[in-house]
C-alpha cells in the first residue's frame, strides 16, 4: 500500500528548526511515498468550540480550512506532528488542531476514530533546552493521543536549537533523522497498559 505522509507544521514562524529537521527525516522516506506538507500557521483553524452536550457537530465544508485539514487527516496513513516545543508541550497551533479532533470524533458519518485506528502518528520537535527530558509532556501528549485513537506511535524525533538553522548543528538529531521513519511504530499504549 502506498503510504501517504501528512506533515503538519506547528511553528508560528516560517523556516524554523522543526520544519528543517522534519524535512531532513522526510528525505529518507522510500521513493513513492506521498508527502503533503501543511503549515497550521498558514491555515489557521478557529478556536475549537465544544458542542458535545448541545448539538451534533456537522462536517465542515471541504472548501474551508477546517474541512481541508479534516480531509488531509483522513487521507493520511501517517500523520507527522512537527511542532516546536512551546512551554514544554506542543505549540498552540498544534494543540488547536488536536482539539478539533474532538469535534471530528463526534461528527456523525465521519467514522474519524475507526479511520485513524491502525494508522501511525509521529512527532518531530526542536527545543532550546539541552536536556531532552523536558520534552516529555509533548511526547506524552502525542503518545496518549495515539493510544486514545487506537493508532500506532512512531515516537518523537528531537532536536536542539533556538535561532533558525541551529538544528543543523545538532549532529545527533541529523543522524537520528536518517532512520527515524524506518523505525517500528507499535500500537500506542497508555502507561498503565504496559
Ligand atoms: C512561545 C515559545 C515557547 C517556547 N518554549 C520552550 C520550552 O518550553 N522549552 C524549550 O526548550 N524551548 C522553548 N522555546 C524555544 C523553541 O522551542 C525553539 O526556539 C525552537 O527552535 C522553535 O522551533 P522552530 O525553530 O521550529 O520555530 C519556546 C519558544 C517559543 C517561541
TrEMBL record:
Keywords of the record: Flavoprotein, FMN
UniProt cross-references to Pfam families, sorted A to Z: FMN_red
Signal peptide: none
Matches recorded under InterPro entries: Flavoprotein-like_sf, FMN_Rdtase-like_dom, ISF_SsuE-like
Single GO molecular function: oxidoreductase activity
Ranges of residues in domain NADPH-dependent FMN reductase-like: 5-124
Name of the protein: Flavodoxin
Organism: Streptomyces populi
Source species taxonomy: Bacteria, Bacillati, Actinomycetota, Actinomycetes, Kitasatosporales
